[in-house]
Amino acid sequence: MEGLIFCYTDLYMRWGFLIAVWLIAEIGGYYGLKRLGLWKPWMGWISPTMLGLMLSLFTFGRWVSLSVEAYKQIQLLGGGVFLIWLATILSKLLGGIWGILSTLKPKDPQETFSEGRRATLQVIGGVFMSLPAIALGYGYWIGRYRFRLHEVEVDLSDLPPAWDGVTILHFSDLHSGSFLSSKVLSPVWEHIEALEPDMIVFTGDWVNTFAEELRPFVSDLARLQAPLGKWAVMGNHDYGDYIAGASQQRRQRERVYLQELVRRTGFTILDNTAITLERAGQTLAIVGVGNWSHWRRFQRYGNLAQAWAQVPKDTCAILLSHDPTHWEYEVQGRYPIALTLSGHTHGLQVGVEWMSYRFSPAQWLYTYWAGLYQMGQQYLYVNRGLGYIGFPARLGIWPEITLLRLRSKQIHSK
Prior knowledge:
Blueprint: H1 8-36, H2 43-63, H3 68-102, H4 115-141, E1 148-156, E2 167-171, H5 186-195, E3 199-203, H6 218-223, E4 230-233, H7 248-265, E5 268-269, E6 273-279, E7 282-288, H8 304-308, E8 316-320, H9 324-331, E9 339-342, E10 352-354, E11 357-359, E12 371-375, E13 378-382, E14 400-408, H10 409-412
Parallel strand pairs: 1-14, 2-3, 3-4, 4-5, 7-8, 8-9, 9-13
Antiparallel strand pairs: 2-14, 6-7, 10-11, 12-13
């Protein structure tokens, strides 16, 4: 079998981490909020109730045969319950910490813990406890549709002068199955059309699970035009491997159907292959590979050696590869690829990007998780993704389309 499809170890690790946070929040919240006089009986049963409902929806959606539309509804409902559960445990955690810290024994034995002071601390504690719900609510109602354009210039040492100034519209991780209606992305497609890029590329994860999820978006994607073509690769969600209990034949049918839908959009999938474009007699290669991840819990369908064999010698090359760990562990320093375009991480959909400061839990998992990176003469751009998966919100790491403008150092270094 090519690659590895789905490993439950990763799932268990994630749930293990969340359960550990939940237990800490329950214990700390009960102790701290009770000391502050804010603990209510319903607080003890709401989070386990939400957890039980979430697990039931997860199990139902994964193992019960449903139509694609019903599956999407269950997925969104489960994601909403997860947000409520997460807001609840984070509220308990913050409130508990505040309760413990604010009611520590005073250093001065004569100091009294008056009712007025307790009331003030309770108000402050209530404010702290409301912050997770406010933040996650914003991420759900607004953040996941707060689309952003990032414009980036990249100076490539071996870009032929004829290609100086070429523009590439890069987007990734559509995750079409997370949207109940394709209309929410209409502003994105209109913006791309207005930019009039020379080339459009997509770096994987068209869907969440089923190929059928892409069908409502086909006509909108087909409207997009670019004189140098529309090129794409597959992501880890695009192989039918995440359909619970599916046979190899079923997964193969899903892949074939998805590839057919992509063809209807006008995109060409580069599956371990390369094409050469010509401009004023000078060439540029676009290389595309199947999903390849350093982490063994994701598939390794990519074969860069096979694709690279199709690139003419001394040709400037751009690689489309879904997972940025591919650049880190196989491309960097091994293949003379000028620019690699990836996605996959979503920046974990939560973080802070303010001026030069950037933080996301994604950096605990990925060395390269969002934006432009350089190592020697090689560049990597990691798109933050247009859609979302699992966690139906974005906060601080907004959905993205990227306009890259390539510059030739052969011209601008003179």
